[in-house]
Amino acid sequence: xxxxxxxxxxxxxxxxxxxxxxxxxxxxxxxxxxxxxxxxxxxxxxxxxxxxxxxxxxxxxxxxxxxxxxxxxxxxxxxxxxxxxxxxxxxxxxxxxxxxxxxxxxxxxxxxxxxxxxxxxxxxxxxxxxxxxxxxxxxxxxxxxxxxxxxxxxxxxxxxxxxxxxxxxxxxxxxxxxxxxxxxxxxxxxxxxxxxxxxxxxxxxxxxxxxxxxxxxxxxxxxxxxxxxxxxxxxxxxxxxxxxxxxxxxxxxxxxxxxxxxxxxxxxxxxxxxxxxxxxxxxxxxxxxxxxxxxxxxxxxxxxxxxxxxxxxxxxxxxxxxxxxxxxxxxxxxxxxxxxxxxxxxxxxxxxxxxxxxxxxxxxxxxxxxxxxxxxxxxxxxxxxxxxxxxxxxxxxxxxxxxxxxxxxxxxxxxxxxxxxxxxxxxxxxxxxxxxxxxxxxxxxxxxxxxxxxxxxxxxxxxxxxxxxxxxxxxxxxxxxxxxxxxxxxxxxxxxxxxxxxxxxxxxxxxxxxx
Length: 515
What we know:
Elements (H helix, E strand, L loop, with lengths): L2 H5 L6 H11 L4 E4 L4 E3 H17 L7 E5 L4 H12 L3 E4 L6 H11 L3 E4 L1 H6 L10 E4 L7 E2 H4 L17 E6 L9 E5 H8 L9 E4 L6 H12 L3 E4 L5 H11 L3 E4 L1 H8 L14 E4 L6 H10 L3 E6 L8 E4 L12 E2 L4 E5 L12 E6 L6 E2 L3 H6 L1 E3 L5 E11 L5 E6 L4 E3 L2 E3 L1 H9 L4 E11 L3 E10 L7 H9 L10 E4 L13 H7 L7
Parallel strand pairs: 1-11, 3-4, 3-5, 5-6, 6-7, 10-11, 10-12, 12-13, 13-14, 26-27
Antiparallel strand pairs: 1-2, 8-9, 9-19, 14-15, 15-16, 17-18, 18-21, 20-21, 21-22, 23-24, 25-26
Helix pairs in contact: 2-3, 3-4, 11-12
């Protein structure tokens, strides 16, 4: 069966498609990093050796193997080889605390743990708590060397039968603060993403976010399944990204908003030949209309912003190059996606009113691994019994059906009984000529319960005092919205995919005592 025929099926698996790609385009590069390049034939053979070694080590269909390492060709091949064995992949963030990594490893039930020296060094104090067999992807002493661990060349794994609702991967929602939740995404969910056809054969995709992130996987997986080439960056650097894009004639990229901003800020941006680009994507964090407009103006190819969750549910897409008047939105629901807004009592709100975003589609998590209570909290059922996933985001649909996000529900500030949306204040801060970026959080107040405080990063070469900026904003907003304090900071704390960590700002606030 040809690749084209497989991709028309209602369900197939990623390893099946790659096997057929290896027959149709054996010599085409599929995985590229700074050290080595792997062809489709080479990837298919390596996946077989990985899967056979996993089965040799007792990893059966529906078991789990974990990966925690820097992005590399070996990482990409291992992720795919685990799938060929019928096991689910638990990709873990190296930035997690050692205690969180141990918790995630044990929670996932991983039988084999692929890592590198950097992760092994971080885990030195808790290594005795790791039950899984350790394999070092970088050939270090972090575990059994990858090349030694592999099954012999030519080895073939025992065939496995994979069901649509079987776990494809378990992505943990947090590894730095709080208790991580394992989001179980099924094969059917990933198959739907692969079949979108956004990354056609011959695509060259820049992969500059970590492979343990769902943001990356929704770009990486369709690229390698559909006959493209993935150029892997171990760590994002704006200059290196531009150089690699030019060198490899990149056609596609998935970037988070902060990466776009850093790229567009480079004074030499216009000197790079980016004419090969067909489409660029963004997701995971708020994307300022100003940066979107700059990308559309100066970077060849289209721009699409996706809004959704790792848990799945409903997603929206903003085809920015077709709707330059809607850059303040995250677009309209994708085909087959049902997005609704509900109030605090779980009732749908009328069009034009603000509510929590809930969504439903063919791409939905099975649930949180070993946490049925948390799974139930994340679900909302419509009056006719349809299952939706709650996002925790607050938004509003306009008259054209475009969704404007306000804030995370948990980030909304209730001050003296009034709802204050941090995004409104951040939008006003963005109009000050000295402000590069900002984040507004609610902090405790004896008088109001909560009150807004802003954290501001200044533009390079610009100067302004905190009092000047605060007076500027407070003169433009309503009395109940006024900032109680403003702190100038060098940077804002961010997650590995660029989300501002507002919890860190709230917890670390050491400003004035607020009455």
